[in-house]
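Question: does this match?
>
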Amino acid sequence: LEALSLAAGGGEAAAAGRQLLEGRRATLASALELEGTVLREGRLTQFVANNLERRIRLSGAPRSEPPAGGGGSSIPAIDPGALQDVVALAGQVAAQVDELLRNVHCGLQALTALSVGCIQTYRDGVESLGEAADLSIRAMYALVARCEELDRAMQPVPALAKRIRDMKGTLERLEGLCK
């Protein structure tokens, strides 16, 4: 749009050129607004055509036939070189998307393998802890059982100690008599 506007305004004085340039831009923008949506952001102007698909189909139709949609405006033919460029760019984009998906796939496989490894390590740790706890409980029960056996075996000791004290006392009295 700007190139057309500049071409229309070229060769005039600066002030008159600016006024004509602004007028030409307004005329082009108004004409374009009838055919689609015009968006302006600073110096950038974007145009989105209404019924773009129909316009593309009509541009490929032979010139002798009237357009099927009955539109009164003539649409220029699409440049085959531009279509080839679009096809080539689409192929490049598809290749890049394929490479991106392969990289994502490889990354996901690595993360999955790492997650599986962590889960297996956790599982092994839990199993090992369970086995260690079980062995500790068994050892504790065995110790308690041995302590009970020892307690039962030691029950006659107090009576035996009393007998030994009695014997010792009797021996001391006998010694005292013999002296």
User: Anything to note?
Assistant: Strands lie at 36-41, 44-49.
